[in-house]
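Hey, I'm writing a tutorial for new members on how sequence and structure tokens pair up, and I'd like a real worked example in the thread rather than a made-up one. If someone can provide the structure for the chain below, I'll link this post from the tutorial.
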Amino acid sequence: MGKKAVLLLSGGLDSATVLAIAKSQGYDVYALSFKYGQRHAVELQAADRVAAKLDATEHKIAEIDLRLFGGSALTADIAIPKNRSNHDIGHGVPITYVPARNTIFLSFALAWAEVLGAYDIFIGVNAVDYSGYPDCRPEFIESFEKTANLATSYAIESGQKIQIHTPLINLSKSEIIKLGLQLGVDYSMTISCYDPSPQGQACGTCDSCILRAKGFAEHAIIES
């Protein structure tokens, strides 16, 4: 048995890559996904596929209702931005930002980690090819890690440090894809779209689809 780790799994490209990374490092991975009222809940089917294919030890889906608050195109009846330029995607906080989402998700992951006695939490945040989300920044992760070590009895009593692992934080999408392919990730089982069809087909024009396509295009150019 390896060390236990809790991993936030959305079913998208980034989190699938992080699961492969954690497994390659010898962790027994406990994957945690969320049904939070998101319009792209089809991602949970992808998360199931990824967890099974990449041999997660266990996969839980927590149900919370962030539509109660709204404030995001993902959790309210607000249009998803489409066909934005790379410049626009890289500047400002878009309406697809879900207020406090990573803070909430990491708190749930921390609770499960404490029950499991796991001192490692993995999350696929990225600060290079990302959509301006404040909770994807290294400063946020460092702050949450400090909070985790102050807030949990198992950290205080054991004297062992809880670590929040962000192996993709400084990688471009093409670099993430290259790493994932080296680790055997089948990206066809993932979905990154914010506005998929009821059948689970990606729209191809939201910010997330554009960043994904850009990453694959750049990877193809580099590898050719």
